[in-house]
Amino acid sequence: MIVLTRVGKEKKEKFLVNHNQIQHIEFIPETKVVMMNREFYIVAETGDEIIQKIADYTAKVMDIHRQVTLVDKR
């Protein structure tokens, strides 16, 4: 899951998104993250920032998997 910042009328709030459920990202000029269920979020992050967050998270998960695999030598 990645942390994004929802842009609201009065405040910004952080929330977690399952990046595997993102269908697409629109630039309208805000960043609109559309989920598989057609719900969407207007967020403060740019498309490039979201892509980087997804890449960082995926690398972290793969690294954890690699460490567990190396330790468990059955």
Describe the overall structure.
This protein is an alpha+beta fold and 74 residues long. It contains one helix and five strands; from the N terminus they run βββββα. The two termini are 30 Å apart.
Supply the key terms.
74 residues, alpha+beta, three-stranded antiparallel beta sheet, two-stranded antiparallel ribbon, elongated
The major pleated sheet works out as: 3 strands, antiparallel
Q: Give the helix proportion (percent range).
A: 25-40%
Oligomer: single chain
According to DSSP, the number of beta strands is 5
Give the class from helix and strand content and strand pairing. Answer: alpha+beta
Tally the helices.
Answer: 1
Proportion of strand residues = 35-45%
Gyration radius, rounded:
15 Å
Q: Kindly report how far apart the N and C termini lie.
A: 30 Å
Question: What is the topological layout?
Answer:
Elements: E1 2-7, E2 12-17, E3 22-27, E4 31-35, E5 40-43, H1 47-71
Antiparallel strand pairs: 1-2, 3-4, 4-5
In short:
This protein has 74 residues and is of the alpha+beta class. Helices cover 34% and strands 36% of the residues.
